[in-house]
Write a structure and sequence with these properties.
This protein has 394 residues and is α+β, with helices and mostly antiparallel strands. Helices cover 17% and strands 23% of the residues. The chain has helices spanning 5-9, 17-30, 70-79, 180-189, 294-304, 371-374, 381-393; strands at residues 39-43, 49-56, 59-63, 85-89, 101-103, 135-138, 148-151, 159-166, 169-173, 195-199, 211-213, 245-248, 251-252, 257-258, 263-267, 273-280, 283-287, 312-314, 326-328, 360-362. The strands form four sheets. Strands 1, 2, 3, 4, 5 and 6 form a six-stranded mixed sheet that branches. α2 runs antiparallel to α7.
Length: 394
């Protein structure tokens, strides 16, 4: 009796809502800590090398080495928190795996955030044996004490739980006293031009292992988080329900510009609402409200790192008229896309709108009210999302 997100949204609760609540809670408590598309390395002499395995349908499986190259390897290593891949190995170099071979003929562009975003034939569609299990060797030279990363079962690299490297392992950071200055320092260290907001109470899921930092107090001018005042490595009184997360401005300081397809919200009363603007060819522009609905709004909110369950579209320049180019018109998303630019639309700057039709989005980030309680029940980001969505329907 395996539940799914689909069935939870459509379950018929008994008359007593409390009973439904506890049924869903029980489900959340037993959900695996892994999420579809997670990767791991097995069989290597060190943690940064090994046979590539990917998680799907509650099972770990291997990846076939057909047409595998360094671009594919780089995606795996970045997903695991390493800077890049040193090399890769074919023909079960790290030993043959067991169980399913989930992926074959992987073709990454090299820019993907997760292996599952690369092109491949489909889960379980392959003509390989375990003698063709691929392995990778990730570089570790860029990871030193005080390095930081953002971790999330989510879709964008500028959003996630803050983790810091010390004594040979990654650990989390407690949210006690955390403020925007601390967030600015984390985002600066990661190469982003600025910070958008921060999230407390394990908003992006509870980490594991050490909680390396507590009582962090940055002035905002520091170049690294470890340069800020804090209680000392591993000194604190927090649990993982207090792991802090951040949202960085989704543009790289090294490129001096946003990336094509980046989105932002402008003109709202808070950071989770506003007129939708999208970046293309060096310019920010707006999106027309023709056909734009709550499903499209969900994609925008997901791309920005917010919960999607309460996303609402606002038409007719609800947050004020923008200026310049109207980049997109007739947007139609399925709802599963990770970026707005991946949805169907007329093409860049191909529409019949004016700025009185600029669309806005309210990500309606009210689920944060439930976080402190929910994180006590959900051991993983996946379980958290399932339970949060179910509660919001009650």
């Amino acid at each position: 009796n395996r539940f799914s997100h689909y069935s939870l949204r459509r379950c018929v609760c008994p008359s007593a809502k409390a009973m439904c609540f506890w049924v869903v809670s029980l489900f959340a408590a037993v959900v695996s800590a892994q999420n579809t598309g997670d990767v791991r390395l097995r069989g290597g002499a060190t943690s940064n090398q090994g046979r590539v395995e990917i998680y799907y349908r509650n099972r770990w499986g291997t990846v076939c080495d057909d047409i595998w190259n360094l671009k594919d390897s780089n995606v795996v290593c970045r997903q695991l928190g390493y800077s890049s891949a040193l090399t890769y190995h074919r023909n079960a170099y790290y030993g043959e795996g067991v169980g399913p071979i989930w992926i074959d003929n992987v073709a990454c562009s090299g820019t993907e955030l997760r292996l599952l975003y690369c092109r491949f034939h489909g889960y379980g569609i392959q003509d390989c044996s375990h003698s063709e299990d691929v392995g990778v060797y990730c570089t570790i030279d860029s990871i030193s004490s005080g390095s930081v990363r953002l971790v999330r079962a989510g879709l964008t690299s500028n959003v996630g739980r803050v983790e810091v490297y010390h004594s040979g392992q990654w650990g989390t950071v407690c949210d006690d006293g955390w403020d925007f200055d601390n967030t600015v320092v984390v985002c600066r260290q990661l190469g982003y031009s600025g910070a958008t907001t921060y999230k407390t109470n394990a908003f992006y899921g509870q980490g594991t292992g050490s909680i390396w930092m507590d009582g962090v107090d940055c002035s905002g001018s520091e170049s690294t988080l470890s340069s800020c005042r804090f209680n000392g490595w591993g000194v604190g009184d927090c649990g993982h329900s207090e792991d802090v997360g951040v949202v960085c401005s989704n543009s790289s300081a090294s490129s001096q510009a946003a990336a094509n397809g980046d989105v932002r919200l402008v003109g709202g009363s808070s950071s989770d609402e506003g007129r939708v603007e999208i970046y293309y060819n060096g310019l920010w522009g707006t999106v027309c409200d023709d056909y734009f609905d709550d499903v499209d709004a969900e994609v925008v909110c997901r791309q920005l790192g917010y919960s999607t369950s309460q996303a609402k579209a606002r038409g007719d320049a609800y947050y004020g008229q923008g200026s310049g180019t109207i980049w997109l018109d007739n947007v139609r998303c399925y709802g599963s896309e990770s970026r707005l630019s991946s949805c169907s639309h007329n093409g860049w700057r191909n529409g019949d709108c004016d700025h009185s039709e600029d669309v806005g989005v309210d990500c309606n980030d009210k689920s944060k009210i439930l976080h402190s309680f929910l994180t006590q029940l959900s051991p993983s980001p996946l379980a958290f999302q399932l339970l949060s969505d179910a509660l919001l329907l009650l």
